[in-house]
Amino acid sequence: MSDILTPTEDALAEAPPPTRGGGALRYVLTKIGGGLVSMALVVVLGFLLFRVLPGDVIQTMFRGRPASPELMAEAEERLGLNKPLFEQFLDYLWRLLHGDLGQSYVFNVPVTDKILERLGPTLLLVGVATLIAVALGLWLGTRSAWRRGSRFDRISTGVALALWSTPTFWLGMLLLAATSGLFPTAGIVYSDTAPDFLSQALDVAHHMVLPTITLVAVIYAQYQLVMRSSLLEEMGADYLTTARAKGLRDDLVRRRHAVPNALLPTVTLVFLHLGFVIAGAVSVETVFSWPGLGLLTYDALRVRDLPLLQGTFVVLAGAVILMNVLADVLYRVLDPRVRAS
Amino acid sequence: MRSRRVALGITLLVTALVTVPVAVPAGAPEAHAVSEQQTKILRVGVTQEVDSLNPFISITRTGTDILRTGFDYLTVYNQEDYSPIGSLAESWETSQDKLTWTFKLRDGLKWSDGEPLTAEDPAWTFNKMLDDEVARTANGSYVKQWESVEATDEHTLVIKTKVPQATMLALDIPIVPEHVWSKVADIGAAPQFPMVGSGPYTIQEFKEAQFTKLKANPNFWRGKPKVEELHFIYYRNSDAAVTALQNGEIDLVNRLNPTQFDSLESNPDIARNKAQNRRFNEILINPGAATFDGKPIGDGNPALKDIKLRQAIATAIDSKTLVDKVWGGYAEEAQGYIPPVFGEFAWSPPEDLKREFSLDEANAMLDEAGYRKGPNGVRLDKQGKPLNLRLMTHAEANLDEVAGPFVKGWLAEIGINITLQPLSDNQVNESTTRGEFDLAFSGWNANPDPDYVLSLQTCASRPNAEGKGNTPDSFLCDEEYDELYNQQLQEFDRGKRVDLVKQMQEVLHDRATLVILGYDNALEAYRKDAFEGFPLQPREGGVIMNQQGYWGYYGATPAGEGPVPVFNDDGTASASDAETSEAADEESSNTGVVLAIVGGVILVLLVGGLLFARGRRRTADERE
């Protein structure tokens, strides 16, 4: 690298050096502390938010089927809904501290079981889709920045933007209608597939094609655009001229010098998005009846299943907070400049 | 040069992505029709998730539909017309004082695991419900007036009630095997699979939000069904379920909307079933809401306490237009409170009571009742205030959305100003339960036994001061109606009870606290290349799915194994003469292709436009 400083590096160099040795630890602890405060807020919000919604839980439960006032009172007592709100909150808090998210009203099973059962399909779908989207986005972003203004740049950026602004639901329905019969319409596996691992895995893969394409199409643009713009920022840097002057091939200049420096903001973005990944696929899950967490949340909201709502809310918000903290910490590890400041 | 090639490649790829699917004809290759040869499977698409397969807990439509095929009852509703007939019970008698019921169970009944099914099993099931409130979760209302249940011998079950109860032949309670359930520690927990049952199928496997698998039960007392496996497959949205039916991924689906139903008409492999449904749709008119002990609540317009005003409003609502415009013809015009599908209890107003839709008539009624027209054409109430009423609608319901403006228009013609109030389902329920409405859309699914929907209009069904503790509907509290209600509850002669129920409907019609809008049809479709047909309930114009019984799934007849059986009340089956499949003329539906083309064109235009814009900007940049 050269010893001539770019303006940013210049400014950073002038920043006062860290005063104490425990800087790294303090940084991490501050971030974790911030995360815990957010989590506490989420816990309180999760309790209050769903109780302000209109509609009485017991009334909703007994609507449309014979029930005497006694039966309704019985149910209210069993669910603890006759207690004062504050007491209900303490119960909820106490259980939460013991890792118990309560019992679903509608499904009559522990919320934790319910969430765990749905976590697998969501992680599989959104995980695979995110991997593909990140890889595709970074690759396309790098190419289009490197050849800025070329036809490739114009087309790929245009397509990415167009897909990004396409409604997920519409794209999913369109793919379903257009590929009619080629791929399964819904679910994660056929009910009559042989129980052995290979057939099951193949069937799951078959079922995943359309939801994955839909999800990738809608989300890859953000990675491409961030990668493109951060690489463009690096393009004029002197160290690239130096690298070229050393006689390096264009490919190598890009791969070894430009991309690693441009990756930083993208990595943060990826991590920030990982938090939303768990919650993020509600519309895709709805179109393709994918038995994941997004679908569960949506259904819980419709039937006013309070414990299930609180549970999913806490878990989903918790994931976002966790990933945020990780992103902050990782950023520091990756970028010496942040460490110095 | 290289980037050029890459760009070309990407362009080709994108073009391919957009156009290839368009080129693939919709519904052509059927990727999934492999396993049909080996086992005869009936795959049913359902659009509602199963809440639980625990017979003591499940209350959803899908859950109870599945449990009905897995567990038998003492009595069931027959296929013909919903009359109660014996199932596990062969006969029954009641004591002089109508407080003791003695059921005789059939000989040789067996559970699916081979254990004998005796009177001890229903006795255990019912006693569990009497002892354990969790076991009362789903069906507690049936046993709330019971004294005791006892199996006096292997075949005899004696139930004593506290008061005479006319609904004892309508006990929708799945009977569970004592030898399995008595070992269950938590009666409300999710059940173990496979489940031991006594219905035509046994529940083998349940995958949450995916599917439930059942297998034919060789020990079912009516005999093994023709279908070997029954799968209920969950679809989150009904468009996907329709596509799945077209692709042959499922064989049967219900709850279609008129558009979907029409789109299947031309498919030669699909038969459709337009059936009478058990739902009635209504508009409530708040007659002055009050709590169960008569204290006024809510904020209903006091003018609506006048029966004349309510009757005029009822006269100004046209069921025929709603049937045509809202339901696209897939509905029946309004008659009585009980839907016509329950022929026995259904009532239609005789000529002299009939309210023909007429805006002139409604205007005349209001003139006569003294509602003068104000300066802007809006009538004034008795206090001289203009008649401004709110009409509460369910924001997500098609009926409310489309019918709301019609009703507003009609009422404007008779000098009543309506403000539409679209709210979420929960909000509508909460507000109506508290009496905070003037007019509101509502509707209920009636049961073969009309007791529940009738009870909704009694004084006792009104809530407490917090608007809780009960489920009111129109807040009617009418002495005559309540008197009739109590009589029918204790009337054991079916003919007399039917009369009483009809009289109640006449009272409801007269009081006009609710206006029946119509009864929408149940729209179903199945693959006729895979299935000959299904027994309908009721036999004429009835449904296949969501029956009040197991007939549709039990009598499912694979193609080539016809005819579809008809189930008689004595437990025998005979061959049907009716052909349920309808003729179709055209090739497969083109909606998919059209959609894809339209979408493709839009996408191409979008991308093209973007590139064009960018190109222009770039040339402009270069010029500078």
From TrEMBL, chain A:
Subcellular location field: Cell membrane
A single Gene Ontology CC term: plasma membrane
PROSITE patterns: ABC_TM1
Domain ABC transmembrane type-1: 119-331
InterPro entries registered for this protein in UniProt: BPD_transp_1_N, MetI-like, MetI-like_sf
Cell division among keywords: no
The organism's place on the tree of life at top rank: Bacteria
Entry protein name: ABC transporter permease
Record family assignment: Belongs to the binding-protein-dependent transport system permease family.
Sorted UniProt keywords: Cell membrane, Membrane, Transmembrane, Transmembrane helix, Transport
One of the GO BP terms on file: transmembrane transport
Automatic annotation (TrEMBL), chain B:
Annotated spans, Disordered: 562-587
Topological type in the membrane: Lipid-anchor
Entry keyword Transcription: no
GO cellular component: ATP-binding cassette (ABC) transporter complex; periplasmic space
Compartments, record wording: Cell membrane
Positions of the Solute-binding protein family domain: 84-457
Family membership noted in the UniProt record: Belongs to the bacterial solute-binding protein 5 family.
Main location per the UniProt record: membrane
CDD domains (UniProt xref): PBP2_NikA_DppA_OppA_like
Keyword Transmembrane helix in record: yes
Signal peptide from the UniProt entry: 1-33
Protein name: Solute-binding protein family 5 domain-containing protein
InterPro entries reported in the protein's UniProt record: Peptide/Ni-bd, SBP_5, SBP_5_CS, SBP_5_dom, TAT_signal
Positions of transmembrane segments: 593-613
Record PANTHER family: PERIPLASMIC BINDING COMPONENT OF ABC TRANSPORTER (PTHR30290), PERIPLASMIC OLIGOPEPTIDE-BINDING PROTEIN-RELATED (PTHR30290:SF10)
Gene Ontology MF annotations: peptide transmembrane transporter activity
Keywords annotated in UniProt: Membrane, Signal, Transmembrane, Transmembrane helix, Transport
Gene Ontology biological process terms, A to Z: peptide transport
